[in-house]
């Protein structure tokens, strides 16, 4: 039995050299207004929402980011698309400032660029990610986020 992957690809052009991950990352970052860790507090005070995209196992190992929404990377776009049926209540429109955080600031750049593709034009990330925030002493800065205070207050009434 001949599998489709074994048949010659005579009608398909030869593959061209793909871009490297560094090329893709550079392109993604070129459209972002990336924040340094010390800038996150002011952005949160202005209404930005911090999203931690690290997998649960990594958050357990490295530490949680108090006040951030924990949304794993594989469902990020579905949760933040304000037009989608699976969106979070905080994904109210395309003007929300989403600050995406990963461990070291690489995958968060790609994720923020993907959010911008959805029209979330203010999406960005943090240079150096969670680890840089810890080093700068601002890993709990998002506890002061308005959405975090609202959620804490609503839980207190249960």
Describe the model.
The protein has 158 residues and is an alpha/beta fold. The chain has a single domain (32-156), classed as Rhodanese-like domain (Oxidized Rhodanese, domain 1). It is 36% helix and 8% strand. The protein has helices at 21-30, 40-45, 56-62, 76-80, 107-117, 129-135, 146-156; strands at 49-52, 69-70, 98-101, 124-125. The protein has a 4-stranded parallel β-sheet with strand order 2-1-3-4. The longest helix has 11 residues, at 107-117. It is globular. The mean pLDDT is 88.
Distance between the termini: 63 Å
Helix content: 25-40%
Task: Specify Rg, calculated over alpha carbons.
Answer: 19 Å
Can you tell me the CATH architecture?
A: 3-Layer(aba) Sandwich
How many strands, what sense, and barrel or not for the largest sheet? Answer: 4 strands, parallel
Q: Which stretches of 5+ consecutive residues score pLDDT under 50?
A: none
Features:
158 residues, alpha/beta, Oxidized Rhodanese, domain 1, 4-stranded parallel beta sheet, globular
Quick structural gist:
Helix content is 36%, strand content 8%. It is of the alpha/beta class and 158 residues long. The model has no long low-confidence stretch (mean pLDDT 88).
What layout of secondary structure does this protein have?
Elements: H1 21-30, H2 40-45, E1 49-52, H3 56-62, E2 69-70, H4 76-80, E3 98-101, H5 107-117, E4 124-125, H6 129-135, H7 146-156
Helix pairs in contact: 1-5
């Amino acid at each position: 039995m001949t599998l489709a992957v074994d048949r010659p690809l005579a009608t398909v052009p030869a593959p061209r050299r793909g871009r490297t991950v560094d090329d893709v990352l550079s392109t993604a970052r070129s459209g972002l207004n990336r924040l340094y860790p010390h800038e996150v507090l002011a952005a949160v005070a202005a209404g930005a929402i911090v999203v931690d995209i690290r997998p649960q196992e990594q958050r357990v190992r490295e530490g949680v980011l108090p006040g951030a929404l924990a949304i794993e990377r594989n469902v990020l776009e579905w949760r933040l698309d304000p037009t989608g049926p699976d969106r979070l209540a905080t994904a109210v429109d395309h003007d929300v400032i989403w600050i995406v955080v990963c461990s070291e600031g690489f995958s968060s750049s790609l994720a923020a660029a993907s959010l911008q593709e959805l029209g979330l034009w203010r999406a960005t990330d943090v240079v150096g990610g969670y680890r840089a925030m810890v080093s700068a002493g601002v890993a709990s800065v998002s506890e002061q986020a308005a959405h975090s205070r609202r959620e804490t207050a609503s839980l207190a009434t249960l």
